[in-house]
Amino acid sequence: MKTSLEEAVKMHAQPFNSIEDLTPLLEAAGDAKFVLLGEATHGTSEFYTWRAALTKKLILEKGFSLIAVEGDWPAAQQVNRYIKSFSKQEQQPREVLQAFKRWPTWMWANEEIADFIYWLKMHNDTDRQNVGFYGIDVYSLWESMEEIVHRLTDIAPSGEAINLAKQVLACFESFNRIPENYAAAVDFSKSCEKAVSQLLASIRSNEELYRDSHETDLDLKINALVAKNAEEYYRSLVQSDEISWNIRDEHMVEAINEIRDYHGRESKIIVWEHNTHIGAADATEMKNEGMTNVGQIIREQNRPEDVYAVGFGTHSGTVIAAPSWEEPYERMVIPPAQPYTWEDLLHRTGASDKFLLFHSQNFALFDRWVGHRAIGVVYNPEFESYGNYVHSKMSQRYDAFVFIDHSHALSPL
């Protein structure tokens, strides 16, 4: 008789209450150079605190020195400068996180991240290893362009790049900083595509002019990369959601690779993103829509043993989210998971926190389709059953899964 998913969970799930209990997970990651840590929501405290705990262990015990998050590059650079003491200005973690001004601010401007970046600063201040914190998302088009102009005005006020940067900024300014205006109004003859490509090429060809001990060359290059890929992303919004999704995730992989190239290809990186980005898309129904994601692309680009992906989920609790796009956040109740979904199975096998490792001995047991909960920054609990579950083959999508039975909303600043 074929073992049911519920029976498989009972056989292989391991309980945990402390970071020491998760030692088998860290051991299973082996010598991976990429550890991808997911989340089922952008507003659950436990996802942030357990990822932070795992990240600290990876830094201290396995030599990881890079953290890439699903956030804007310019805002995350303020964190990077803080934890590396690039600025002589004395700041507190909560002050630094005020740099995350674009909605949804709560994703990174929260108490859980404030505590984490304070730890990172203390670690960097007392250890020779300088851990970096970087944002890899594509949304910061205008902020990235302003940062480029500001930086080049200081270090290369008469070069080709500053003139190109001003042209690009002027091109986008005509759309009143509203991406939808650009997407709706632009045609190829009026687009900023050529200008952003020229700007990135100029900065790449003159990297040595911007090199210093504060990573200015990397900062300029990634901001220019954001501008180029964001232009394509916003232009694609009128085509299809699938195309724009792929452009965004391909950009995040490109940013990850640029960061690793800058610090050396042997550098080890931890990626914090939603499960829908770090869990391989080809193990979900996303594949049928022609969609890819960060987890799938990184697996395709690297050896299997170099990539380790950990999904996170919850059965019920509370969460920070918004009822619609760009509205103020609310503390919402997450209802119990829908029957016969992944989260429901994990709950029914014991209402406690647990984790699963997927490996050759149990791979086939979990290589079956099951609904897997996903909550974004916009959420309506009343209609959860209609769009918050992604059919997935769990052992193909992740290498491990961490389950919080009853979770709590994070604490926005």
Describe this structure in words.
By secondary structure, this protein is of the alpha/beta class. The protein folds into two domains: 5-64 and 270-407, EreA-like (biosynthetic domain) (EreA/ChaN-like  fold), CATH 3.40.1660.10; 141-263. 44% of the residues lie in helices and 15% in strands. The chain is built from 17 helices and eleven strands. The chain has helices at residues 5-12, 23-28, 45-62, 73-83, 93-96, 111-126, 141-155, 160-173, 179-185, 193-205, 207-210, 216-236, 241-263, 275-278, 294-301, 342-348, 394-397, and strands at 14-15, 34-37, 66-69, 132-135, 269-272, 307-321, 330-334, 354-357, 369-373, 389-393, 400-407. The strands form two sheets. Strands 1, 2, 3, 4, 5, 6, 7, 8 and 11 form a nine-stranded mixed beta sheet that branches. The chain has a two-stranded antiparallel ribbon with strand order 9-10. A hairpin with an 8-residue loop joins strand 6 (307-321) and strand 7 (330-334). The chain is globular and about 75 Å long. The mean pLDDT is 94. It comes from Planomicrobium stackebrandtii. This is Erythromycin esterase-like protein. It holds the Pfam family Erythro_esteras.
